[in-house]
Structures are given as structure tokens and as C-alpha cells.
Specification:
Layout: H1 3-15, H2 17-50, H3 55-79, H4 84-87, H5 106-121, H6 123-142, H7 148-168
């Protein structure tokens, strides 16, 4: 994204109050719904496992997303790319003070691996979560806190690890 491109995105959202409101809702609150849903589903799988349910489902649902989150955290600390609002002369639509750690987007990686975990357990829930993943990822880009490459890299990583962790191993 160039400064000129971001200025056009910013201008659009500031001129369209409903779109800007929706962006803020998705950015701030949709992630919290996932943060609440994931441990709740994990708890249900644990209780199910104690009552004769699948141990494999519980273990995969726990370890595959944890592996993505941890490996993504370490990788972006090592790379430590600046965020768009640091590298460009822009002001993000939604205030964020984090320095560096832009590539890849951990929010995007986390929500995509959680959507894959949910798909592994229940395809309807997985599809619902996938829609949330797309919206949350787009909000990070439109808000000016991540480059598109940060988002795409996180999606590719999560889908690759998720496919291996849930369907191959």
C-alpha cells in the first residue's frame, strides 16, 4: 500500500460513516468473539473427551492453533517489520501504538487457524468462522495496521499448517 492508496482508503471510510462504524466493530469486537469462542469449544471438547469423546479431536484443536500462534509470534519478532503507519506518512483509521512486528499478521494467522480447527470439528461452524477470518483480516488492512503481504503470508501459513495438522497428521 502506498501513501496515496491509503489516503484514498482513509478518505472513503471517513466519508462513509456506516462503513467506518462497521470497520471499527469488526476490528475491535469480532476478534473478541473468537477469543471467547475458541476456549469455550476447547472446553466442550475436553468435557466430551472425558465422557468418551475423541481425544484426537481435543489434542489437534489445542495443539495445532497453539503451534501456529507460538511459531508466528517468534517469526515476527525475528523479522520485526515496521507497520504501515510507521513506514509511511499515514495515520491509521484505528489508533494502534505497536511498533514493528507487522509481518505476518498474528491476528490473521490466529483467526484462520481457529477457523480451520472449527472446520475440523464442525464444517458449518468452520464456514462461519472463515467469514469472520476474512472480515477481521480485511479490517487489519483497511485500518492501516498491516500491509496486504502481512495478511496473505499469515493466511498461507495458517492454511498450510492447518491442512497438515488437521488432515494429514
Amino acid at each position: 500500500m502506498t501513501e496515496k492508496n491509503y489516503a484514498a482508503v482513509r478518505k472513503y471510510f471517513l466519508a462513509h460513516e456506516k462503513a467506518y462504524f462497521f470497520l471499527k466493530i469488526v476490528y475491535k469486537y469480532f476478534s473478541w468473539m473468537i477469543i471467547i469462542a475458541y476456549p469455550a469449544i476447547l472446553l466442550m471438547l475436553f468435557i466430551g473427551m472425558l465422557n468418551g469423546g475423541s481425544r484426537e479431536d481435543f489434542v489437534k484443536f489445542l495443539l495445532v492453533p497453539a503451534g501456529v500462534f507460538l511459531s508466528m509470534s517468534v517469526f515476527r519478532l525475528i523479522i520485526n517489520n515496521p507497520r504501515p503507519y510507521e513506514a509511511l506518512d499515514i495515520s491509521p483509521l484505528i489508533k494502534k501504538d505497536t511498533k514493528g512486528k507487522s509481518f505476518p499478521s498474528r491476528h490473521t494467522a490466529s483467526i484462520f487457524i481457529i477457523s480451520m480447527a472449527c472446520n475440523y470439528i464442525n464444517p458449518v461452524l468452520g464456514a462461519f468462522m472463515f467469514v469472520f477470518a476474512v472480515l477481521i483480516s480485511a479490517s487489519r488492512f483497511f485500518a492501516g495496521v498491516h500491509y496486504i503481504r502481512d495478511i496473505v503470508a499469515a493466511i498461507v501459513y495458517s492454511l498450510t499448517v492447518g491442512a497438515a495438522g488437521f488432515y494429514i497428521l
